[in-house]
Amino acid sequence: MSDLALPAARAPRRPDRGLVAALALLPLIFLVPLLIGDDFVFHVFITICLYGALATAWNIVGGFAGQLSLGHAIFYGIGAYTAGLLVPLGVSPWLGMLGGAAISAMVGVAIGLPCFRLRGPFFALATIAFLQVIRLLALHFTGLTGGAVGLMVPLQTGWEWMIFFERWPSLLIAFGLLLLTLGVTAWLRHARFGYYLVATREREPAAAAAGVDTLRVRLYAVALSAALTSMVGTFHGMYLTFIEPEAMFSLAFSVQIAMFALIGGIGTVMGPLLGTLLVVPLTELARGWLGASALGLHGFVYGTVLVLIVLFVPDGLVGLFRRAPKGSADAAEPAAPATVPATAREDIRREIGEPILVAEHLHKHFGGLAVTQDVSLSLRQGEVLGIIGPNGAGKTTLFNQLSGFLAPESGIVRIRVEGEGFIRPATPHAFARAGVGRTFQIVQPFAAMTVLENIMIGAFHHHPGRAAAREKALETAHRMGLWAQRDVEARSLTIGGLKRLEIARVMAMEPRILLLDEVMAGLNQTDVQRAIRLVESIRDSGVSIIAIEHVMQAIMALSDRVVVLNSGRVIAEGRPQEVVRDPVVVEAYLGEDFVHAHSA
Amino acid sequence: METFVQLVLNGLMLGGLFAIISVGLTLIFGIIRLVNFAHGELLMVGMYLTWLGTSQLGLHPYVLAPPLVLVLFVIGVLIQRFILQPLLDARDAHVQIFATVGLSTALINLALLVFGADLYATPSSGVRDSLTFGPFRILIGQLVMFVCGIVVVGALHLFMERTYLGRAIRATAQHRAAAQLMGVDVKRIYIITFGIGAACVGLAAALVAPIYPASPTVGTYFVLTAFVVVVLGGMGSLHGAFIGALLIGLVDSLSAFYIAPDLKEVVIFGLFILILLFRPTGLFGLGRGSE
């Protein structure tokens, strides 16, 4: 590794071979049927475009947001019905498409709002339940939907009505919808929004601590996914010219959409289309050969392929195209990682200013256990405040209240913001926006993202543009000794690396107030020394710090002031040298007997 | 009043049917922590096998129960061993769901390929005759299911509480790693648990087939209700599943009469959404519903 200089990393990464291949193939989806001109080929390729677009839209929620929806037919059906009901009134389906998309986005948000706290299978079950309710209601209210009999779309042809005698205009629209969903996904993959979405999927608390409004990000995702799905639904309704609840709000159809994405590879731009390209022609051709006797064949193939993919290529077809992870973790570290810039101005005496974070009379119970009892403390501008206390004293719980992760039952936390005076944030991301950054005692990496992307999540806080955030992240990675591992997935870091990543992410946020939760625990002596120097350099750059720490050496060296917690109460406060000699503190740590034995 | 009592009776009997289908599901749910989306399809396979046994061999459906229990136990073991076990340590917890969803889709469509979309009614063999108690009537088959539901729940409960294997299963459910450290062969426990869960469906299939005709999607119909029952009862709770099944049976029967027959499922799924949102641990859950 000789390319230690930062600029080397700025060179654009070579695009994936898979992506290039996929982009080269994309126009073929449109051109092949035009060249062959056969009706069956047209049908197959229109089906590919439709399912490809649906799976790509699903992937925004199912892949990027990591919420396994099996109810996406809701939006597909809403799209078809909105346009289908408006056409007899003389409204063009193009307007119906937009109307349906808007309704679907709202329905998606209405379903997502209560359901996004459910995890994994429970979310999937809830989406199925919503789909069933909507399907049954659609069947019940026959006046509106035509019930089980269905609705025929009036056969008016031409671009205005989205219904054609020839095949190619339908193909053009379907292909356009496919390009639209792919384009949206490609944008999302590289925008701050997409990074936030993946970070939320990987580790919600850490994303919130980095200033991401996790619920809002997910709701945007579901609105986007629902709107796109609905648009495809509108077109498909016009293409079929027949709409019925059983087909439009079908569970099997929802599952199928998800399957295409899973087979191709979720959370990637091209995966869902790739999955569609594999299985749709396979089954359509087989159906062409076997005719009507092949009832159920396509589903059998989809299901079997999915099981095989899950067993043998768990990342989906896209996984086949991916090269081995670049840049292994064993690469040599740069010469001077995690050290203080030599320019640290030691001669300048730090000034400790006015309070910047104030907690007053915090109370918190877990069941019958009082974990925080009347705790008040304040952090002043430029100060390092150490918090010590035996295990179970309530230190981390206090931190969670100081960063919005837990709401105190009574008492308030105030943060002073430049030009605004004191404010009272309520949620983790609001605290982050007020300039509070925190680390977690148990490290919370975004496992599937690279080290650099992890740091970028923090950097986005002040640098909304991807390039600027990347710049900031590269600089932070270099400073934190993570340069060599910058393109490695976070899951493959060692515990020391993860701890540095945890700090790197929060430093990239450029917080004014930093809450450090046992960042030194488990480090060896050399690393502790390094970490102490690092915290000093952070402090000297003007950040006010509260540190929970068990490593006394670090507390003594760094703290301007120490607060001692025991059983949820503040039992002592003062300069570090005084506090460690306080008999109350010694007793809390070592027990009454020890104090008596030594005073005797 | 008579109508109401009859509706309650119908509801309880229907609850017995839901119970016997849900017991296996809650077992797999609670112990392997797996949402088995293919559970209904196991029932469907069992119902087709019952139809084959009765119509082709001329056997009474109840006679087929023991062999079906065995066959489905084996199928369950094979699924866990060769499809789900390799995914046990997958880095994405969703992967197992994908596998069961894929399996479910494959099985539904396999049935469609083999049997077509027609309904296959197993001969009723006297099971659909009704017993009368004064003004009230109950189908014999439903009563048998109700009693079998109680017996299965009771037997499984005793098995879990009293035997070494049952204790090992419960230990594994509570903490997989800790059980492993105590010398429990977790993979074997999972295989056995899935086998037992599937075997319960084997019994259910033999009892249900004479009352409901088999079709490729019959499993989907029953399993969605079974999920409601399992979540209502609290995942992994056997008696929870039984009581949940009776409650859902009652809701089904009463709402079909007092609201509208085609809206009873709206009531059930609406209830399901409310439970998921406000009490995901169910009535008797262990407090880990959202895990």
From TrEMBL, chain A:
Cellular compartments annotated: Cell membrane
Any single Gene Ontology cellular-component annotation: plasma membrane
Residue ranges constituting the ABC transporter domain according to the UniProt record: 357-592
Coiled coil: none
InterPro entries, A to Z: AAA+_ATPase (IPR003593), ABC_AA/LPS_Transport (IPR051120), ABC_transp_permease (IPR001851), ABC_transporter-like_ATP-bd (IPR003439), BCA_ABC_TP_C (IPR032823), LivM-like (IPR043428), P-loop_NTPase (IPR027417)
Transmembrane segments: 18-36, 42-61, 73-91, 97-116, 123-148, 168-188, 219-239, 251-280, 292-313
Main location: membrane
Signal peptide interval: none
Keywords, in A-Z order: ATP-binding, Cell membrane, Membrane, Nucleotide-binding, Transmembrane, Transmembrane helix, Transport
Keyword ATP-binding tagged: yes
Lineage top rank: taxon: Bacteria
Record-level GO BP terms: D-alanine transmembrane transport; L-alanine transport; L-isoleucine import across plasma membrane; L-valine import across plasma membrane
Membrane topology annotation: Multi-pass membrane protein
GO MF entries: ATP binding; ATP hydrolysis activity; L-isoleucine transmembrane transporter activity; L-phenylalanine transmembrane transporter activity; L-valine transmembrane transporter activity
PANTHER family referenced in this protein's UniProt entry, alphabetically: AMINO ACID ABC TRANSPORTER ATP-BINDING PROTEIN, CONSERVED COMPONENT OF ABC TRANSPORTER FOR NATURAL AMINO ACIDS-RELATED
Protein name per the record: Branched-chain amino acid ABC transporter ATP-binding protein
Originating species: Teichococcus aestuarii
Classification lineage: Bacteria, Pseudomonadati, Pseudomonadota, Alphaproteobacteria, Acetobacterales
TrEMBL record, chain B:
Keywords: Amino-acid transport, Cell membrane, Membrane, Transmembrane, Transmembrane helix, Transport
InterPro entries assigned: ABC_transp_permease, BCAA_transport_permease
Membrane topology qualifier: Multi-pass membrane protein
Pfam families: BPD_transp_2
Highest taxon, organism lineage: Bacteria
Keyword presence, Nucleus: no
Compartments in which it is found: Cell membrane
One GO BP annotation of this record: amino acid transport
Main location: membrane
UniProt signal peptide: none
GO cellular component: a single term: plasma membrane
Residue stretches spanning the membrane: 12-35, 65-83, 95-116, 136-160, 189-212, 218-235, 242-260, 266-286
GO molecular function: transmembrane transporter activity
UniProt family annotation: Belongs to the binding-protein-dependent transport system permease family. LivHM subfamily.
Name the record gives this protein: Branched-chain amino acid ABC transporter permease
Organism (species): Teichococcus aestuarii
